[in-house]
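Researcher: Next sequence.
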Amino acid sequence: MVAGVNAARHDACARLLARGYRVWLNGVIMQRPDAPGYCRPDAYVIDDLR
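Model: Next structure:
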């Protein structure tokens, strides 16, 4: 199973790693203007980066 999460969501990322998930793909998102949007530490969002 693949679960995508942005590393800016520190707690969500740590929870996945603690449950045995591992990094498979690194990516970069670019948003305009330079605002966190939904990529902030308090957001628990599963990304679909297909």
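Model: The mean pLDDT is 82. The radius of gyration is 11 Å.
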